[in-house]
Amino acid sequence: MDTVLETTKTFVEVAEIWVPENDRLVLSGGVYGRHDAFAEASHFESFTKGEGLPGKAWAEARPVVLKQFDGSYFKRTEAAKAVGLTSAVAVPVFAGSTLKAVLVVLCADDATRTGAIEVWAELDGILKLEDGYYGAATHFEWVSQHTQFPRGQGLPGGVWASNTPILMRDLGSGYRFIRSESAGKAGLTTGLGVPVPVPGGATYVLTLLSAKGTPIARRFEIWDARLAKTGPRETAKLIDGICEREGPLWDPENAGNERVAHAWEGPVGRVLGTGLPVVETGAAAGGYAMMVGLPIHRGGELAHVVAWYC
Amino acid sequence: MEKLVVIGAGMASGRLLEHLINAAPDRFEVTLFNAEPRGNYNRIMLSPVLSGEKSYAEIVTHDDDWYQAHGVTCRFGERVAHIDRDRKVVVGARGEVPYDKLVIATGSDPFIVPCPGHDLDGVIAYRDLDDTNRMIDQAPGSRAVVIGGGLLGLEAAAGLRLRGMEVTVLHLAGHLMERQLDPAAGYLLRADLERRGITVMTQASTKCIRGDGSVEAVELEDGTLLPADLVVMAVGIRPAVALAKDAGLSVGRAIEVDAQMQTSDPHVFAVGECVEFAGQLFGLVAPLYDQAKVLAATLLGEDAAFAPKQLSTKLKVTGCDLFSAGDFTDAPGREDIVYRDPARGIYKRLVVEDDRLVGAVMYGDTADGNWFFGLIKDGTDVSDMRETLIFGPAYQGGAAADPMAAVAALPADAEICGCNGVCKGRIVEAIEGGATDLGAVRATTKASASCGTCTGLVEQVLAATLGDAFAVPAAQPVCGCTDLSHEDVRRLIKSQELKSQPAVWQELGWRTPNGCHVCRPALNFYLLADWPLEYRDDPQSRFVNERKHANIQKDGTFSVVPRMWGGVTTAAELRAIADAAEKYDVPTVKVTGGQRIDLLGVKGEDLPHIWADLNAAGLVSGHAYSKGLRTVKTCVGTDHCRFGTQDSTGLGIRLEKRLWGSWTPHKVKLAVSGCPRNCAEATCKDVGIVCVDSGFEIGVGGAAGMDVKEVERLAKVATEDEAVEWTVAFVQLYREHARYLDRPYKWLGKVGLDWVKDTLSDAAARTALVARFDLSQTVYQSDPWAELSTRDRARGFAPLADLTLEAAE
Amino acid sequence: MSWIDIGALDDIPERGARMVRTRAGCVALFRTGATEVFATSNTCAHKGGPLAEGIVHGRKVTCPLHNWVYSLETGEAQGADEGRIATYPVRIEDGRILIDGDAIGKRSAA
């Protein structure tokens, strides 16, 4: 695959993976782009349970959105501020009750970037916005704060009810979809919703809503990893996906001609093999500046892998 | 170049054109008609477009550039008026096109239920992009009713729900997708859809659609009114054959073709859903593509023949893992392999015939679907892997189903002990806190410390929590279909809120597809006793006596016993009984021990008629055949007897009128004696009341069958009202707790009279029991004779056919 | 074979049965699934119980008199009981049930 350098700015600037090691979370990988100083600061960091953003996601067993570093529990505030990173989202990856890793993404704030990273939580049988980072999409943020999703409705409600990642198209393209009017104004086009399983049975849904100008991703993939136990080799099938360059990534015949990933081969294969998230850049990320692969476990077993590239 | 005209730009003809263009790009000059104002798109992917999970752009198969690049003349949005086969021209709305070869690919039309109101605005079919866009344009929050619970209807329902609508699915059959799924998989699918907030109504027949100009509501045959802003008809399709018929081509249910896809005219071919081959129609895409390939070869002068293959079905609803393939229909020598994993919501069923897999249904885990489908298509001999087949290709080691699975799958808040309100989480906590045997759990949590019927479950929680450190004492399972005991099943039906038999089979991991003659009647009783409003009584799960509402005799005839309230009758009733006995040649008329009259030797097909006659005289069924209230035997009491202390006859009649029609774990017989001389033999009944000067002595647990037992005193009460209240409360407690086929004395032997006394001495508990009993009676206290002697229901008692009569022809 | 239409599929409830009188005696028709029907003799080999009145489960029926269980596919009594009942070819077409007239002895009527 050719290396492509997209000129547009991306929504997420930094992605990193923290894994537990002897009661502490240590850095196992990160893509920092041009933010070398922040990378430097991170390499020497580690977190105990409850400490800093990754430690909080671990201790509280839930995804955490942090939009204000100053005066918060965020440990690398100085380094982040120095390079213009202003917000972060931490997503814990659990297999059953075991923490496999914490994925942290960091965003830079300015008046031009729009997009959304949202965390939805169930309360009294309905999904409500726990928190979200929206960049400049302030109206959409307001709408989201005032929208609730029953089971099966909309992207968050659909993910909740089906317990499966869902990729939605044409979010604001004139379909009278829930939040579509505001999504359209914010230029949001594609949405990826992902269940975040945590011990204890609470329901969390993470959604990434991507805008054309400042995409969260130029390519989304959803892999079904439940086939892993059937084939001669551990494999996953690409059941849905969309790419700015390649177009639809799913099998139009819907008849078993899906692309296949093998365990340990490529970044998705590594997620399959290890059950851990990966972040990659450059050639290893298919020529994209950043690739994030996130495993989703169900009943303690790897069920799906979602990947996004930008 | 040969002139090829194709009518219809669908998936079959699209595939045909691809084959032709690939093989011989310059062979044909193609004109393509399409009534829709667009070219070929992947129609089976409309559901994800509806739900927002795909965009229309993604499902376009051939765009304008493609048609242009391959020199296809497109006549889109133009209907074909007719085909002139003599002149070999197709007449379109905008002019004629001559052909050398003609392909009809008109597909199918949606079937619209012709009920009143089907033409209102807002009633749409689900067939093409326009229908899809119509649904997408509906505002979130609107109410949609989808008629039809097949593939298409359910995909529409899921898509509309994701779009933010309130969705109800109406389905005529007893379970969803009944042609592809069995009841167990249908149950899981329904539960899955309900988890998405979709309302599912089965056995729901649409009477009409109401509205003034546009849709306002759907009315069902049973009178239910469902408000609706949109009605989607997805009940089926029928081949679009008008054009072919009009052209004089041979048309049966669809356009008849041979294996080369040629119609009755050698220059005219047909492909797709409008085709009938060897009596078969085709709706799924796989055979259509096969047809397209064959037709391409035929048009190119090559040899090819179409042969229908086995088909598989998947539902395109994200997260709904369902797979069905092959054949479940009638043939001797077939065998089922069933696997259920309640914890993970998995159900798999394989059908094997002659060492070959012929059918597969799976839900929840469909990863092996294509592997099974491959075995079906290839006719692979599976005898070597027979034992482990169901575990799929990767698991040829094979583990037995875990008998603990149902209990392990229970959520922490599932109530295990109903008496003391102890949930599973509390018991697990206690076990983890060091209570590692039954006694310790009882002491810490009180679970199973009262009536004790949940003992088995508590033991299983111990086993599931402690693993091998705890050995479960073997409890007698209900039958070979499960490892759970009656008590476990009863408890789980309540705590897991299981409200149908398929729900029990699945969630409790039944090993058979639909139970056996031992468990089915028990489950039917437990379900109707615990969920009187939600559960629907299943006659097929009842012993013949209860299904026929008469006692089968050893020669296959039946006995008929009308009810005589408290043993009291009248001259008119006796006359009606005598008339019926004569009219139906009843060989034996006998007075029973329960103070009524038994007509023995009635032929099965006469039953509805004799019932109708007796009904006309005011007599109703005596339920002499049921696990339910039989009789209330009385003595004459104060009315006539010089020793009588109370109105025993009146109380007996009152009790019988209150209790009749109720189903119980086993038969229940009552008696009321007017004084301690006990002429009504009340002291050997299930409930026996003996009147004394100061009130009523209520005794329970008597028997005079294989065991003879005297009643034990439950309570002594002062008033008749109290006597009725205590009796009803006792019967309801028995209904809610006893295992099926335990008479009250057996049940009392297990739970202890003390527990029953304690429970019933709480006035609030008594009131609640009586209220639950009365609620159940609103459903079940009805005369089966009246219901079954209607002309429609009576047909079920006659032979389906009488072929001995045909000799006369 | 000569197929005789004996009634609609929906005349038999799922997991239910109906009886048909024939020259060869009473024949029981069992509907074991949405589209699956079996035909056997209606008479239990044990004491002549009417099998069409039994409980239908899987592809088996249990006699209402003494709980003998028969495979509807082979007619063999299951478990410890020994006995066999006749089975007859039957098929479903367009929602109608057809039985093989030759097998049930219709010929003898002629």
UniProtKB/TrEMBL annotation, chain A:
<dbReference type="Pfam" id="PF13185">
    <property type="entry name" value="GAF_2"/>
</dbReference>
<protein>
    <submittedName>
        <fullName>GAF domain-containing protein</fullName>
    </submittedName>
</protein>
<dbReference type="InterPro" id="IPR029016">
    <property type="entry name" value="GAF-like_dom_sf"/>
</dbReference>
<dbReference type="InterPro" id="IPR003018">
    <property type="entry name" value="GAF"/>
</dbReference>
<feature type="domain" description="GAF">
    <location>
        <begin position="3"/>
        <end position="106"/>
    </location>
</feature>
Automatic annotation (TrEMBL), chain B:
<dbReference type="GO" id="GO:0046872">
    <property type="term" value="F:metal ion binding"/>
</dbReference>
<comment type="similarity">
    <text>Belongs to the nitrite and sulfite reductase 4Fe-4S domain family.</text>
</comment>
<dbReference type="GO" id="GO:0051539">
    <property type="term" value="F:4 iron, 4 sulfur cluster binding"/>
</dbReference>
<feature type="domain" description="NADH-rubredoxin oxidoreductase C-terminal">
    <location>
        <begin position="312"/>
        <end position="379"/>
    </location>
</feature>
<dbReference type="InterPro" id="IPR006067">
    <property type="entry name" value="NO2/SO3_Rdtase_4Fe4S_dom"/>
</dbReference>
<dbReference type="InterPro" id="IPR006066">
    <property type="entry name" value="NO2/SO3_Rdtase_FeS/sirohaem_BS"/>
</dbReference>
<keyword id="KW-0004">4Fe-4S</keyword>
<feature type="binding site">
    <location>
        <position position="635"/>
    </location>
    <ligand>
        <name>[4Fe-4S] cluster</name>
    </ligand>
</feature>
<dbReference type="GO" id="GO:0050661">
    <property type="term" value="F:NADP binding"/>
</dbReference>
<keyword id="KW-0408">Iron</keyword>
<dbReference type="InterPro" id="IPR017121">
    <property type="entry name" value="Nitrite_Rdtase_lsu"/>
</dbReference>
<comment type="pathway">
    <text>Nitrogen metabolism; nitrate reduction (assimilation).</text>
</comment>
<feature type="domain" description="BFD-like [2Fe-2S]-binding">
    <location>
        <begin position="478"/>
        <end position="527"/>
    </location>
</feature>
<dbReference type="InterPro" id="IPR036136">
    <property type="entry name" value="Nit/Sulf_reduc_fer-like_dom_sf"/>
</dbReference>
<feature type="binding site">
    <location>
        <position position="641"/>
    </location>
    <ligand>
        <name>[4Fe-4S] cluster</name>
    </ligand>
</feature>
From TrEMBL, chain C:
<keyword id="KW-0001">2Fe-2S</keyword>
<keyword id="KW-0408">Iron</keyword>
<keyword id="KW-0479">Metal-binding</keyword>
<dbReference type="InterPro" id="IPR012748">
    <property type="entry name" value="Rieske-like_NirD"/>
</dbReference>
<dbReference type="GO" id="GO:0046872">
    <property type="term" value="F:metal ion binding"/>
</dbReference>
<dbReference type="GO" id="GO:0051537">
    <property type="term" value="F:2 iron, 2 sulfur cluster binding"/>
</dbReference>
<keyword id="KW-0560">Oxidoreductase</keyword>
<dbReference type="Pfam" id="PF13806">
    <property type="entry name" value="Rieske_2"/>
</dbReference>
<protein>
    <submittedName>
        <fullName>Assimilatory nitrite reductase (NAD(P)H) small subunit</fullName>
    </submittedName>
</protein>
<dbReference type="InterPro" id="IPR017941">
    <property type="entry name" value="Rieske_2Fe-2S"/>
</dbReference>
<dbReference type="GO" id="GO:0008942">
    <property type="term" value="F:nitrite reductase [NAD(P)H] activity"/>
</dbReference>
<keyword id="KW-0534">Nitrate assimilation</keyword>
<feature type="domain" description="Rieske">
    <location>
        <begin position="4"/>
        <end position="99"/>
    </location>
</feature>
<dbReference type="InterPro" id="IPR036922">
    <property type="entry name" value="Rieske_2Fe-2S_sf"/>
</dbReference>
<keyword id="KW-0411">Iron-sulfur</keyword>
